Amino acid sequence: MRPTEGCGYRKAQASCQNPVDIGDCPVPSLPLRKGTLNQLAFSLFFFLRDRCQGDLVGFIESIFAEAEEGRARRSHQRKAARL
Fold it and tell me: Which CA distances in Å does 75 have to 7, 72, 81?
């Protein structure tokens, strides 16, 4: 289980949703003021690693390219429907 999946880490209480594994969890080791910041840091890391494959700018560009292709396709379909 990833730290961000059902984590529920609370720094002040030193507790989480999976207390059996808290000793092996990397989330509590971050030197951040709030437990939610620790969770967000890991969420961002996993997003960049898994979804963006380490390339945030390339990921954003691909999203815009897909949106532009969809817009062009719909425009073409509307033009064809008018004929």
Answer: 44, 5, 10
